[in-house]
Write a structure and sequence with these properties.
globular, six-stranded mixed β-sheet, alpha/beta
C-alpha cells in the first residue's frame, strides 16, 4: 500500500459534484492499494501514520502524533499512486490492485482510522472527487508498505 500524507490546517472533499465532508487540523491521506497488498498491510500502514510525530508542539517542533493534538483525517482512495511512468508518456496502472480487493482494503484502512480518530471523513472509492486543502508547513510524506520495517 502507498500513502501520501499531508498535514493540513483544513480540508474538504467534493464527491461526484456533491459537497462531502471536511476536517480541520489533521491529515489528508491519499491511499493507493497495490495488487500484492493484504489486510496486514492496511494495519501496518495505518499504525505507522497514526504514530508519526509530524504535528507541531508549542515550540513549532514536529514532536506530536495525531492523537496528541486530537487531529482529524480525510482518507481518499488514489489508485494513481501506482502509476508506472518508466515507459512512454501514458502511465500504466497494472501494479494497482483490482478494484474489489482495493476497495476492501480501503474500507479496512478507514475502519482502522475510525478506531483511533474521532473525526474521520472519506472519499468514495472510484468516484470523481475534488479535494481542497490548506497544507500546513507544507508537510507531506510518502509511505509505502514495501519500505516499512516489519
Amino acid at each position: 500500500m502507498r500513502a501520501v500524507v499531508q498535514r493540513v490546517r483544513r480540508a474538504s472533499i467534493v464527491i461526484d459534484g456533491v459537497q462531502g465532508g471536511s476536517i480541520d487540523a489533521g491529515y489528508v491521506i491519499l491511499l493507493g492499494v497495490g495488487h500484492e497488498d493484504a489486510p496486514q498491510d492496511a494495519e501496518r500502514l495505518w499504525n505507522k501514520i497514526f504514530s508519526l510525530r509530524i504535528m507541531q508542539d508549542e515550540q513549532g517542533k514536529t514532536n506530536r502524533a495525531l492523537a496528541d493534538v486530537d487531529g482529524a483525517v480525510l482518507v481518499v482512495s488514489q489508485f494513481t499512486l501506482y502509476a508506472d511512468c518508466r515507459r512512454g508518456r501514458r502511465p500504466s496502472f497494472t501494479n494497482a490492485g483490482d478494484p474489489v480487493t482495493a476497495n476492501e482494503l480501503y474500507e479496512q484502512f478507514i475502519s482502522l482510522a475510525r478506531r483511533d480518530v474521532e473525526h474521520v471523513e472519506t472519499g468514495v472509492f472510484g468516484a470523481d472527487m475534488q479535494i481542497e486543502l490548506v497544507n500546513d508547513g507544507p508537510f507531506t510524506i510518502v509511505l509505502d508498505t514495501a519500505d516499512l520495517a516489519r
